[in-house]
Amino acid sequence: MRTTISKQFRWEMGHRLPMHKGLCRNIHGHSYEAHIVLRGELDDQGMVMDYFDMKGLIQSKVDELDHAFLCDASDTVVLEFLREHNLKHVIVDFPTTAENIASMLCKHVVSMLPSEHRLDMVKIRLFETEKTYAEVEQHL
Ligand SMILES: [Zn+2]
Questions:
Q1: If you measure from the C-alpha of residue 116 to the centroid of ligand 1, how many angstroms do you get, rounded to a whole number?
Q2: What is the Å distance from ligand 1's center to 130 Cα?
């Protein structure tokens, strides 16, 4: 039977949206929470995927992002500062909206899947605050 499982991950991260007209152009941060959602057929153990193995799909990326500044490559003002002071940062080639971060995480999880799996869908629900999230799903 097709079944969905989910696991949550949290990290702290700074960012800004340089082109934003409002407050989001300022340097600030969020306690991000990502729900990794996997849908597929059960194996003979009754699992879509072992929750321990789910952690392996995303934990290295969460560790990379935790307490880093996620910097749009075009944001040269902040990027120069981060480099000059040797501060933890991750450079991406997109505006660091929740939508784009969710997409990045979804692609990462798909790339980390084992060659043999029974999944037909990977979804990331990324909470930027407790009231706002972006969701991206990829069908396999
Ligand atoms: Zn923000």
A1: 37
A2: 12
| Alpha-helix residue ranges (DSSP H) falling in 2-137 | 51-65, 76-84, 98-112
| Ligand 1 center from residue 86 Cα (angstroms) | 22
36 class by beta-carbon count within 10 Å (0-12 exposed, 13-18 middle, 19+ buried): buried
Is the CB of residue 41 less than 8 Å from the CB of residue 118? Answer: yes
Domains of the chain: 2-139 (3.30.479.10)
Integer Cα distance of 115 and 1 in angstroms: 21
28 alpha carbon to ligand 1 midpoint, in Å? 6
User: Whole-model pTM?
Assistant: 0.95
The tens-digit pLDDT sequence of the chain (140 residues) is: 899 999 999 999 999 999 999 999 999 999 999 999 999 999 999 999 999 999 999 999 999 999 999 999 999 999 999 999 999 999 999 999 999 999 999 999 999 999 989 999 999 999 999 999 999 999 99
